[in-house]
Design goal:
CATH architecture of the largest domain: 2-Layer Sandwich
Number of helices: 6
CATH class of the largest domain: Alpha Beta
Oligomer: single chain
Helix content: 25-40%
Largest sheet: 5 strands, mixed
Radius of gyration: 19 Å
CATH topology of the largest domain: 60s Ribosomal Protein L30, Chain: A
Strand order of the largest sheet: 1-10-2-8-9
Order of helices and strands: EHEHEHHEEEEHEEHE
Length: 265
């Protein structure tokens, strides 16, 4: 990304998203209603939760059949065995556990707490019709394929505005050795998520040897400041002023360190 001005604009008063909704159409309508016009340097950052809701990834815990393996892990960690059943279902490997915490490798390759399963801002669910009821009875899983979700949004919104629209699907994750959460890219479409700058020169003329900015993560982290984590209700953000390297083939997996380079597993 070239130095310059980055402007972040959330779509305000974004409607509640229900299973089967066309998230792309909601984004197009909200963008037009707000008088925004994407250009060649615009990127769309969308919070994972609204993607998961549209794709029907909300699960009622009352509908989960607890497995023996999940019950054993729940006994060790003190977590709800129904939640643990879902964590195991969504994971390719359990990395670490302690009371109150499970760190898992999601089947997409991302390593995070609870395999990305979250019970906040899920919506209220009851046993009769999936609406109303008490908070905490349901959880949201990640999209089955966040890259495919990003690509679908890119196509829909791009066709509506007549230009390529790079997309980031973001979630807030914790980081080893640092407190707090920050936005990460879990799905990417339309641009290179990591820029290999090896061989380029710095301000002093030295050739850079290892520099590779995680551009998609930087965009996700920036957008998270205006998306909010509680009741702000601004899951969709336009970033303007982004000079990206466009790419037809892109994946958030490019942000993951290969296992052979992992010093901690």
């Amino acid at each position: 990304m070239k130095p310059g001005t980055l402007q972040l604009t959330p779509l305000r008063d974004f409607p509640a998203v229900l299973p089967g909704d066309s998230l792309g159409e909601l984004i197009v309508a909200g963008t037009r209603a707000q008088g925004l016009m994407p250009d060649a340097n615009s990127v769309l950052i969308v919070a994972q939760k609204v993607v998961s809701k549209a794709e029907g990834r909300r699960i009622r815990l009352a509908d989960v059949d607890v497995t023996a393996e999940a019950q054993e892990l729940a006994d060790l960690t003190g977590k709800d065995p129904r939640l643990v059943t879902l964590i195991l279902r969504e994971s390719s490997e359990i990395i670490r556990t302690r009371p109150g915490l499970i760190i898992a490798e999601h089947h997409t390759g991302h390593i995070l707490a609870n395999a990305g399963i979250d019970g906040s801002n899920v919506g209220l669910v009851d046993s009769a019709n999936g609406a109303g009821g008490a908070q905490g009875e349901s959880v949201l899983l990640w999209p089955e394929d966040p890259d495919a979700s990003a690509a679908a949004l890119s196509r829909h919104v791009g066709e509506a505005f007549g230009l390529p629209v790079p997309v980031v699907i973001s979630d807030s994750l914790g980081r080893p050795w640092r407190m707090g959460t920050v936005g990460f890219a879990i799905g990417v479409s339309g641009f290179e998520p990591v820029w290999d700058q090896v061989g380029e020169r710095d301000l002093d003329g030295r050739v850079m040897q290892v520099t590779a900015p995680a551009v998609a993560d930087a965009l996700a982290a920036s957008a998270s400041l205006v998306q909010g984590e509680t009741d702000q209700g601004q899951p969709v953000v336009w970033a303007q002023g982004c000079h990206l390297r466009l790419a037809e083939e892109a994946s958030a997996r490019q942000l993951l360190r290969p296992l052979e380079q992992d010093m901690f597993r």
